[in-house]
Every structure is written in structure tokens, then in C-alpha cells.
Amino acid sequence: MSFILWICIIGFLVQPGKSQDEDLMDILLPYSSFARGPHFSHRHVRDCQPVKYGNVTHETTLPGAKNDSVPLIETKYFTTPNEISQGHVTFVQDPARHVSVLEPGKEGGCTAENDGNYTRATVAKSGERKKCLVAVNAGFFNTTTGDCYGNVVSDGKLAKDGKGIQNSHFGVKKNGELYFGYVTEEEVLSGDFDQLVAGVLWLVRNGEIYVNESEKAECADTQETGTLNTFINVLSARAAVGVDAMGRLVIAHVDGRTRSRGMTLHDFAQLLIDFGVVNAINLDGGGSMTYVSNGTVINYPSDYCSRDSKLYRCPRRVSTIVCVHDGGNTPVETTDAPNEATQTQSGMALLIVIYLVSCLINGL
Ligand SMILES: *[C@@H]1O[C@H](CO)[C@@H](O)[C@H](O)[C@H]1NC(C)=O
Ligand SMILES: *[C@@H]1O[C@H](CO)[C@@H](O)[C@H](O)[C@H]1NC(C)=O
Ligand SMILES: *[C@@H]1O[C@H](CO)[C@@H](O)[C@H](O)[C@H]1NC(C)=O
Ligand SMILES: *[C@@H]1O[C@H](CO)[C@@H](O)[C@H](O)[C@H]1NC(C)=O
Ligand SMILES: *[C@@H]1O[C@H](CO)[C@@H](O)[C@H](O)[C@H]1NC(C)=O
Ligand SMILES: *[C@@H]1O[C@H](CO)[C@@H](O)[C@H](O)[C@H]1NC(C)=O
């Protein structure tokens, strides 16, 4: 009798704080007390990276020249080597024009605070306003409040200052360069970024798997070592954003359910290399993982829809997204507008001339 009691007590202790939400949601967290990510200086990242990189903590790539023999935007799908999970990979030419980081739900979704509640929205919903052709969940967030973690720059606007957080970032600079790695707060505030969002862990650096190195860099706190290591080695749904050797932006995901199917980050990084990726960072995964094509969810998200039935799965309301759209980032829209106005003005002038001429003719 007391033996059974002990088993119950031990079982209870081994499952600390398993809330009702965890039954419903496929929670995959890199840190156990992730308030604002790793609390250390950029110097730590510089000091603990392999010597060959010197003090350079990021990689930048200028997008390749447009190649007309491959599609502008191309999505392919695949199955993992064990045939259990599926995923999609999208290649985008001319990414500076076609890619935006978007805040959840609306512009200001990362800052609009309502008594500690932040905006969250499904990837499809957040992608509506930019008519995204492909959209994927991006940044990590506080699963209780929705607070966006890391730095967020969306179409040139600083939406969230990560206060020097040292997690891997993906960015598009004003000069069109794609950026992967660790940013300093000065770089963020310099206004050099058009798009910027934080992931956790740098998967591929210069064509090599960089998971072990970035684990060291993004885990200063020894308390978090176990959690971050589990995050890396557990099977789960994964998402990444990267760049290939042709200078195309690459978005890839694999479906899964934490602990039962999906991929470890080491295997996911190798898969990205097989796709031709040379630099890539890891985005939010687990139940957040949602891949939307032109408004339709085309992957299999892993959160249950409701507590009452385990029959259906539903896309989670998440934080920031990476959106591939038809081009026309802000500059294009603003140059279109005056043209329309001039056309209307010349149209009006023509009407007035016709009116005056017809008055003259009538008068004669
Ligand atoms: C999320 O935010 C709440 C409220 O600010 C905080 O108490 C909690 O620790 C945060 N959760 C995590 C995982 O940091
Ligand atoms: C990085 O290293 C280069 C060459 O060693 C040096 O000139 C530069 O000042 C260093 N930058 C920083 C931020 O330490
Ligand atoms: C354009 O794409 C084709 C097909 O993938 C490839 O063979 C060719 O090398 C590419 N050209 C350039 C300039 O990258
Ligand atoms: C914040 O969210 C909680 C939980 O969903 C809710 O009970 C509360 O009313 C919300 N507060 C505001 C101001 O919206
Ligand atoms: C990463 O670290 C693990 C555990 O220390 C080791 O087994 C593995 O070989 C390392 N991978 C690479 C690519 O160095
Ligand atoms: C996206 O959806 C819209 C409206 O449903 C449709 O007009 C458009 O052709 C679609 N675009 C692509 C690339 O599938």
C-alpha cells in the first residue's frame, strides 16, 4: 500500500507543474524561465564562438542576381528519412522586395499592451493584411501573455527592442543584405534593418551545422543547460529561415508533435544543408508551427482544438510571422500613389477643356 503511495508521490514530482494547457498545447520551450532570453552581453557570444570567426558574430549575404530559369517563389514538399513526418521548403528570389516580418494580428501587435495581455493571432490571420503567398510562424513568445521575445523590425519600423538579447536573429538590411546571427543593441537601434526577428539557436553557419556552437553561445545560465539541450534533441515540429548558395531566401518546416515525431535540431540542420542552405536560424516550433500558403494552412499543426475532443488539431495563435508576398514593400506603394493622383488630375483637366470647348461651340 505504502509502496503504491510512494510511486504516486514520485510520479507527481517527476511531472512538475503540468498544467491543463500542456494537455491541449504542444509546448516546446528552449528555456524554463525565459523572461527575456539569455541575460548576458554580446561579448559573451564573441568570446565563446570558434576562433576562426574572430569577433564577427553574424553572416551577411547579398541576394543573388535574379535567375529567370527558376521560379521567383517556389514551394516543394518532402518526407523525413524515417517516412514519419512531412514538411515544406520555399525558395524566394529577390527577398529584400518580397519578404517581411509581421507583428501578430496588426501593426503594433508586439507593443500594444493591454494590462499585460499582448496580441496573438494565427499565422493566416497575421498574413492577411500583406496577402502573404507563404507565411510561417517566426518569433518565440511568452505562452501566457503573448509578449514577443527578441528584437522585431517590421517593414523598417522597430516594433520591439529586445534590449540586447543574445539569441540568433534573421534580418534584412536596408541595403538588401540578408543577416543571420547575433546583433548588438547598437545595430538594432541604428535603423539599418528593414526586417528583423529573433529565433533561438543558429542551425547552419557558412554551410556547416552550428547547433553545438550556438547552444554554447545562447546558454550562459547553467540552470538552462538541460532545458536547452532537451529543446535541441527532442523530436518536434521545427521551422527555420535561411539563405541558399544562390542567395535565395529559404523557409523550411517539418511537422511533428514534441517527443513523438518530427526532428531534432541536428537532423533538421543537416536537412537544410541538403536543401543547399548556407546560413539559417531556428524559429519557434512545436504547436506554434504553422505553414500557410496564400491564406490556407498547408501543414498539420499539433495543438488540440479543445479539451473535450482529441479528434482535431488547430493552428495556435502565435506571435510574429515571416511573410513572403508579391513584392511591393512600402517604397513601391508610395510611388504608386502619386501616379494615380497625377492621372486623376490630368483626367480632370481634360474634362474641363472639353467642357470649355463645348461651351464655346454652343455659344457660337
Ligand atoms: C510570462 O509572463 C508572465 C507575466 O509577466 C511571467 O510571470 C512569466 O514568468 C512569463 N513566462 C515565462 C516562461 O517567462
Ligand atoms: C574585431 O577585430 C578586428 C580585427 O581584429 C578589429 O579591428 C575590430 O576593432 C574588432 N571589433 C570589435 C568590435 O572588437
Ligand atoms: C539559374 O538556375 C539554373 C537552374 O537551377 C542553374 O542551372 C543556373 O546555374 C542558375 N544560374 C545562375 C546564374 O545562378
Ligand atoms: C488578460 O487575459 C486574461 C486571461 O485570458 C483575461 O482574464 C483578462 O481579462 C485579460 N485582461 C484584459 C485587460 O484584457
Ligand atoms: C555536437 O555535440 C554532441 C554532444 O556533445 C556530439 O556528439 C556531436 O558530435 C557534436 N556535433 C558536431 C557536429 O560537432
Ligand atoms: C491566392 O488567392 C487569391 C484569392 O483566393 C487568388 O486570386 C490568387 O490567384 C492566389 N494566388 C496564388 C499564387 O495562388
TrEMBL record:
Pfam families (UniProt xref): NAGPA (PF09992)
GO BP terms in the entry: secretion of lysosomal enzymes
Domain Phosphodiester glycosidase stretches: 131-324
Key word Signal present: yes
Record keywords: Signal
Signal peptide, first to last residue: 1-19
PANTHER family, alphabetized: N-ACETYLGLUCOSAMINE-1-PHOSPHODIESTER ALPHA-N-ACETYLGLUCOSAMINIDASE
Entry protein name: Phosphodiester glycosidase domain-containing protein
Organism: Owenia fusiformis
